[in-house]
Design brief:
Order of helices and strands: EEEEEEEH
Radius of gyration: 18 Å
Strand content: over 45%
Number of helices: 1
Helix content: under 10%
Structural class: mainly beta
Shape: globular
Largest sheet: 6 strands, antiparallel, barrel
Distance between the termini: 58 Å
Strand order of the largest sheet: 2-3-4-7-6-5
Number of strands: 7
Length: 119
């Protein structure tokens, strides 16, 4: 007869920050970025990725160029679409997508986050 299994660990509520590779920050106000040269609205960002809204088609596994631009200059790097969904909004059709950063300069992305995160 096999030994009884040890008791399961108590269920923990899902920790949104603890289950991610990096903390994610909501952005303050309207922040626009470029995804393959097309404008997109930044929803949230971390040092390893971002969520964007775009009128340009975005599909999972699509490779692209990402540009975070503001008054301090541009931060450019390669990225890929981790997930995407099509939405119909009051402003028309758009894509909501999770973008995974492939080769960002972490210090530049951290500085960009510090300038744009909601307090």
């Amino acid at each position: 007869v096999p030994a009884p299994a040890p008791p399961a660990a108590p269920a923990q509520p899902l920790d949104q920050r603890g289950t991610r590779r990096a903390p994610r920050y909501k952005v303050a106000g309207q922040v626009d970025v470029l995804v393959d040269g097309n404008p997109a609205s930044l929803i949230d960002i971390s040092t390893v990725g971002a969520q964007v809204l775009s009128t340009a088609v975005l599909k999972p596994n699509q490779r692209l160029r990402m540009t975070l631009n503001d008054q301090s200059g541009d931060v450019r790097f390669r990225a890929s679409v981790a997930w995407a969904s099509f939405e119909i909004s009051s402003k028309g059709p758009r894509y909501r997508a999770g973008i995974q950063f492939l080769d960002p300069n972490a210090q530049q992305v951290d500085a960009y986050i510090a300038r744009h995160k909601a307090s």
